Amino acid sequence: MTGSRTGESRATADVTAPDVHRRAARVVVVDPDGHVLMIQGFDPHRPEDAYWYTIGGGVEPGEDDLGAAVREVWEETGATITAEDLLGPFHHDRGSFSFEGRTIHQEQVFYGWLTERFEAEPAGFEDLESRSTIRIDWIDPAATRAAGEAVYPASLERLVEDVQDAAATRS
User: Fold this and answer.
1) What is the pLDDT of residues 119-132, one digit of tens each?
2) Nearest to 137 by CA among 33, 35, 49, 25
3) How would residue 37 be classed by pLDDT, with cut points 50, 70 and 90?
4) Which residues contact 145 (CB under 8 A, 6 or more apart)?
5) Which of 32, 51, 62, 99 is most exposed, with the fewest beta carbons within 10 Å of its own?
């Protein structure tokens, strides 16, 4: 019996999961002091490697980037906003990363939202998001990086400045 289980395990391990190609809308949520609301999470296949990332996620079929950004803010923070609350987009990029044994190829667009600090509470996390999230918190990106923690995107500090500048010109 043990040999059979070991054989099944090896067969499962040898199967390569297909790559995922997706578009994502991300939101750099900034408070008046320049702190950013971020999610600290991890890849369930590598739980020892925690990292911080911005609010946001995949654009659903039939949805535009702005609509996805508004939806993701609600799902991940519980905050109800409109497209008019968002600034930008400020940045577009492409990248690839590993998550749950698959390679994700992601094209993403970044919006901004300058808001007073609030207590974020997910309103629509999927099971995987719940299992791979440590916490949601307001962080100082530079101080968090200086403490040795991984913070994404690498250009976050510049994006925070872009959000603050755009908010100042909007007022």
Assistant:
1) 999 999 989 899 99
2) 35
3) very high
4) 151
5) 62
